[in-house]
Amino acid sequence: MAMLSRLRLTDYRNHAGLVLAPGAGFVVLTGENGAGKTNVLEAVSLLAPGRGLRRAALSDMQRQGGPGGFGIAATLAAAAGAVEIATGTLAAAPERRQVRIQGAAATANTLAEWLTVLWLTPAMDRLFVEPAGERRRFLDRLTLALEPGHAHHAARYDAAMRARNRLLAADEPADPDWLTALEVQMADHGGAIDAARRSAVALLGERLAMTPDGPFARAALTLEGWRGDADRLLADLRHNRARDTAAGRALAGPHRADLAVTHLGKGQAAALASTGEQKALLLGIVLAHAELVAQRTGHAPVLLLDEVAAHLDPVRRAALFDRLAGHGQVWMTGTEPALFADIGDAATRVTLG
Ligand SMILES: Nc1ncnc2c1ncn2[C@@H]1O[C@H](COP(=O)(O)OP(=O)(O)OP(=O)(O)O)[C@@H](O)[C@H]1O
Predict the structure, then answer these.
(1) Are 11 and 67 in contact (CB under 8 A)?
(2) CB of residue 335 inside a 6 A radius of ligand 1
(3) In terms of DSSP bridges, do strands 69-78 and 2-12 run parallel, antiparallel, or are they unpaired?
(4) What pLDDT is recorded for position 344?
(5) Pocket mutation for ligand 1, best pick of 11, 12, 14, 61 (most atoms within 8 Å of C-beta)
(6) Is 64 in the pocket of ligand 1 (CB under 6 A)?
């Protein structure tokens, strides 16, 4: 777990070749609209498991007009010394993500052992009113930061679930032993997923409850939609084979969970809060989580705050900078350098475009 001390982008979106040497603390990216600020944050988000902060297709990320394929390489300053991590695609396989750690091929999920990255983007403003999937993904990123094995369990669960769906959809009757084997895998990994999420929600809830009422609204969190351990999941899957066959998918399991968020001060569902209140709730959750992860793992996550500063009033902006000072590496974007005038000289400032 660490921070980035060097970042090199090759043919990544609009960046043919970009090298940055971020310091610890704030990394401020400014530039006009379309300069490629969010692209840089997206590149950093791909140094963690998953599809990055836009959830875009890999083939969309290679530079249009470039040779095909892209590269994102970073040096991590870790306690044990520098670690080189890299991800990207090759021109011949634009949809296949390659990952290297210290030069050796690795899976994307192992990136979680080296770097924790969390982000807040304008697209997440609608998180509380969107379908459950977006909140589940958000919850899973929060969980992954506390439990690096979470991505592995999620990947194995999804693979087993897809295989079970295919088996149930096939014309010929499913081999019961094979079906049971897949359900056992789903139950084992699903139980681990649920336990890790519940633990993350409980820890984060405690942290939020402890946080004094400040300029960012406080949230209460609960896991909804589906809860249960491995035994319960296995029993449910067995019992619901006919129903799942008719539906064409598994109707119960941790893939149906949701994160319910309440505005603590108002005792009201986050979805009912105003747009500004929803932004503040989300920011409050991300900040509390970053502090929680730093406290529990001894390593602050790398935070990517896309266009967050511009949407805060000056008092909240100052409060944000105050709260994040000394947190670790915090990447922020904005079109106006003046937004970041108050964060001091220690920041790494980069103008793009
Ligand atoms: N695969 C690609 N190849 C080349 N350019 C791309 C690719 N994908 C996106 N772009 C370009 O990147 C630019 C958008 O970059 P980005 O979203 O990082 O901008 P930004 O600096 O964050 O802007 P804003 O301030 O408007 O949010 C657009 O001009 C877009 O055309």
Answers:
(1) yes
(2) yes
(3) antiparallel
(4) 81
(5) 14
(6) yes
What are the residue boundaries of the structural domains of the chain, listed by start?
1-116+301-353, 125-298
Nearest ligand 1 atom, CA 335: 25
Convert the pLDDT of each residue in 175-208 to its tens digit.
999 999 999 999 999 999 999 999 999 999 999 9
Q: Where are the beta strands (DSSP E) in 31-169?
A: 69-78, 81-90, 93-101, 104-106, 117-120
Residue 199's closest CA among 219, 223, 218, 220?
Answer: 223
Across residues 206-230, what is the average pLDDT?
A: 89
**Domain over 125-298 is classified CATH 1.20.1050.90:** yes
Domains 1-116+301-353 and 125-298 share a fold: no
Quick: pLDDT tens for 81-92.
999 999 999 999
Tell me the residue type at 117. V
Atom of ligand 1 nearest to the CA of 352: 21
Is the pTM higher than 0.80? The answer reads yes
Q: b/e map of 107-135 (b: 16 or more CB within 10 Å)? A: ebbebbebbbbbbbbeebbebbeeebebb
pLDDT at 227: 83
Establish whether residue 31 lines the binding site of ligand 1, counting it when its CB lies within 6 angstroms of any ligand atom.
yes
Q: Are 328 and 302 in contact (CB under 8 A)?
A: yes
Q: What was the pLDDT predicted at 299? A: 87
d(CA 197, CA 203): 10
Q: Considering the domain 1-116+301-353 in this protein, what is its CATH number?
A: 3.40.50.300
Ligand 1 centroid distance, CA of 38 (Å): 7
